[in-house]
Structures are given as C-alpha cells and as structure tokens.
Amino acid sequence: MSKRHDCDIIQILIGCMIGFHMGIGKKTYILLTLSIAWAILIFVFCTMPSNNLPSLKIPYIDKVAHFGFFFVQSVLLSLLFNFQTRKSYFQIILLSTLLAFAYGGLIEILQNEVFNRTGDLYDLIADILGGFTGAMTYPTILRLFNLIFRRYK
Question: What is the pTM (predicted TM-score) of this model?
C-alpha cells in the first residue's frame, strides 16, 4: 500500500490550502485545485444577491443551474477520491452524493440566515440529484480522463 493512498482527504485539503504539495500526483493536485475552485464558484453564485444574477425567462433555469453546478462538483470529487483513496465505486458515489447534500444544504441554510436570499428545498433536491448523477457518471468520465492523461504524459 503506497503512502499516497493512505493519505486522509482532510489532510490533502488542508495541505493544499496552506501550499504543501504533500507528494501527491499531478492528477490529484489538478483535481483538488479544480474542486476547491468550483466549490468557491458555487458558493459565490449561490450567495450573491438575486438582483445581480442574469434574469432569464426560462422556467426552472435556477434548478438546472443547481443541478449542473453539483454535477460538475461531484465528478471532480469522485475523480479525486478515486485517485487518493482505495474506496469502491459504491463508496465514492455515496460519499460524493452525501457531500453534495451537505454542501447544498449548508448553502440553502446560509441563504436564509445570512445572505438575504430564500433557501429552497427544490434547489437542494436539484443539488442532490446533480451530485448523484455526477457521481454515477464518474466511472465513464474516469475512463476518458485516463485516456487523456495517458496521451499527454
């Protein structure tokens, strides 16, 4: 068992935030950076005042946006967990979906309590469905990811 696979996800996140590379591979470092940047992007868009958001007259576009945000986040996290842990596909899918639920729930609570926006149960459902769908498609995306990285080594 290599040291890289024994690393705890929390240690990886903390290490990256304070600037240590911790011996993690290029794929993992890229995925971690993208995942953190994407989480920040989700937070910014979900907490900015609604009058600053573009007004589109498409029904349920906000639900589609929530689904898409958490789909991408879940794919990034699933790939990260795949490269850094020895978890099974099922465990990775479950963990990514639970994280989508937790992060989406936190954002909805913060919208109600802090940011003068209305938290919405349907937004949370869209977050969870996006997270679950992203996690379910991650094995296919993993195969594509491996093909791309093999080609450019």
Answer: 0.76
